[in-house]
Amino acid sequence: MSFTVPPAPPRAEAPYVADERATLAGFLDYHRTTFAQKVAGLSTEQLRRRSVEPSSMSLLGMVRHLADVERGWWQAGVAGEDVAPRYYDDTNPDGDFDDVDDADPAVDLAELATQQDLARAVLAAHSLDDTFEHRRQGTTSVRWVLVHLVEEYARHNGHADLLRERIDGATGE
């Protein structure tokens, strides 16, 4: 089966003048699109390629990881839904990164897009001041989740830069 990640949508800058909610959501969407650009045009084999031993990090692993991050913080956390991670569990805590050899990138990329859309819907239904009880951190605000997701994507975009450069020499912003 031959697969190539389709082109990413154009990346919009976060607003330069806006309220806190629009600024934070704008930065999160900027980083989501940046990640989509990092994986665009790659084949299944390229997406599965590991960084360097002993790391199991790959771009496909990051796709899967970010899908579960979105799912965990927005659906399970903010929305309070009873959902489990898709790619890892207590018996396989690194399954998102470790189990990519037989994974279907088209399915995993679609799952990431679905989770991002669901996250936007959850955010739209909540105030930044709304809180929920996180199993490890205790009381957590929607504002904190937004800032954390910006940080999460920014960090992984840095990893993705290095992986992409190793794969085909492409560098980006």
Polypeptide structure, described:
The longest helix has 27 residues, at 142-168. The chain has helices at residues 20-39, 44-48, 59-78, 95-98, 105-124, 142-168, and strands at residues 131-134, 138-141. The model has no long low-confidence stretch (mean pLDDT 95). It is built from six helices and two strands; from the N terminus they run αααααββα. It has a two-stranded antiparallel ribbon with strand order 1-2. It is mainly α and 173 residues long. It is 55% helix and 5% strand.
Give a brief rundown of this model.
This protein is mainly α and 173 residues long. Helix content is 55%, strand content 5%.
Index terms:
mainly alpha; two-stranded antiparallel ribbon; 55% helix; 5% strand
